[in-house]
TrEMBL record:
Keywords: Transferase
Isomerase found in the keyword field: no
Highest taxon, organism lineage: Bacteria
Gene Ontology CC annotation, any one: cytoplasm
Pfam families documented for this protein: Acetyltransf_3 (PF13302)
Residues annotated as domain N-acetyltransferase: 1-162
A molecular function (GO) term: protein N-terminal-serine acetyltransferase activity
Official protein name in the record: N-acetyltransferase
Keyword match Transferase: yes
InterPro entries tied to this protein: Acyl_CoA_acyltransferase, GNAT_dom, Ribosomal_N-acetyltransferase
Length: 162
């Protein structure tokens, strides 16, 4: 079942949908922005498909296609990088270039945080490339704090209320 926000619909995909996205082969019911999926989505879908093949259905800790409610177009994705481990889970997200700059990532991220909290997660982790300022701002707006860095990435965490 989709989770709706003020402007978005987060659609938990299944394995068949994941394969269509990976193959850039929309089905008759798929409506995608012209620049969806982009390379970041393809990497995330690959991880989702591997996890699904190894461990079965990942929901609610799977991958969610981000769709705009205004036109129904898929414009990105957000998802968990596996199931929780000791109430900690890692997330990743991305938007097609045509959808960036509208606050969609923050809206989707805050919704996924609520899903995680409802299923007992207490800590969410994320990372960004050093030069991905937009993603760093998104994480900060959603309540994440930077907790570390190395030569390639900044690391962030958010603590969730139970």
């Amino acid at each position: 079942m989709d989770t709706r926000t003020a402007r978005l619909s987060l659609h938990p995909i299944d394995e068949l949908e994941g394969r269509r996205i990976r193959d850039r082969a929309p089905g008759t019911d798929d409506t995608w922005a012209a620049d969806y999926p982009f390379d970041g989505d393809l990497a995330a879908i690959g991880g989702f498909l591997r996890a699904t093949e190894q461990n079965g259905d990942q929901r609610p800790f799977g991958y969610y296609q981000i769709r705009r409610q205004s036109d129904g177009l898929a414009v990105g994705g957000i998802g968990f990088k596996g199931r929780p481990d000791d109430d900690v889970v890692e997330i990743g997200y991305g938007l097609a270039p045509s959808a960036r700059g509208n606050g969609y990532a923050t809206e989707a991220l805050m919704t996924v945080m609520q899903i995680a909290a409802a299923h007992g997660v207490t800590t969410i982790r994320a990372d960004t490339d050093l030069d991905n300022v937009a993603s760093q701002r998104t994480l900060a707006k959603a309540g994440f704090a930077q907790v570390g860095a190395d030569s390639e990435l900044y690391y962030f965490e958010a603590q969730l209320a139970r």
